[in-house]
């Protein structure tokens, strides 16, 4: 049975190294019959979480803020797998991705928690100039534990300063194989 996969791409570059990992992951996932929806977050208007606790998971748009998260919420609600993709910025995810992840909290509010649990899984795709992924992997692993999502793994591609540096590296094939393994 095919899976519905949502990719939250937090890269500011549509054709950067993170996007290469996303592209090959998508090719692998689609080759296994899955449906993939990618959100390129840098091209969207997404405001930071206000911490107002005014969200409600049963609403069509669970957050009180009206921005492009309204496009993401329904896709995440219907998803089986949520992939977080980002370049490494100061040992963490990009601001674009962190903002979207923070805003997903609205799906945990209200009558029914539509985010935590529910049989979802996740994977992490990252590219970086360096190789200091320890802090972001720790954050990601804690997030998976909190959300009670199955952790499908990480593809962490270090040593990529310029656009295109990731091409031909083993992590590109790893991203493809990770996508293909989702069945």
Automatic annotation (TrEMBL):
Keywords: Flavoprotein, FMN. InterPro entries: Flavoprotein-like_sf (IPR029039), FMN_Rdtase-like_dom (IPR005025), ISF_SsuE-like (IPR051796). Residues 4-138 form the NADPH-dependent FMN reductase-like domain. GO terms for molecular function: oxidoreductase activity. The keyword Cytoplasm does not apply. It comes from the Bacteria. Gene3D superfamilies: 3.40.50.360. It holds the Pfam family FMN_red. SUPFAM superfamilies: Flavoproteins. This is Flavodoxin family protein. It comes from Merdimonas faecis. The lineage of its organism: Bacteria, Bacillati, Bacillota, Clostridia, Lachnospirales.
């Amino acid at each position: 049975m095919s899976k519905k996969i949502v990719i939250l791409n937090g890269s500011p570059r549509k054709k950067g190294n993170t996007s290469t990992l996303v592209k090959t992951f998508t090719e692998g996932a689609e080759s296994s019959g899955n449906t993939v929806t990618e959100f390129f977050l840098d091209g969207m208007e997404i405001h930071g979480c206000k911490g107002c606790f005014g969200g409600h998971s049963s609403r069509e748009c669970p957050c009180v803020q009206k921005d492009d998260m309204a496009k993401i919420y329904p896709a995440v609600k219907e998803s089986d797998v949520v992939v977080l993709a980002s370049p490494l910025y100061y040992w963490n995810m990009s601001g674009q991705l962190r903002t979207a992840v923070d805003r997903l909290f609205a799906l945990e509010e209200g009558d029914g928690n539509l985010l935590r649990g529910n049989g979802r899984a996740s994977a992490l795709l990252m590219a970086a100039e360096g190789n200091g992924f320890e802090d972001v992997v720790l954050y990601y692993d804690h997030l998976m534990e909190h959300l009670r999502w199955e952790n499908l793994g990480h593809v962490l591609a270090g040593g990529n300063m310029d656009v295109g540096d990731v091409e031909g590296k083993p992590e590109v094939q790893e991203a493809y194989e990770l996508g293909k393994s989702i069945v």
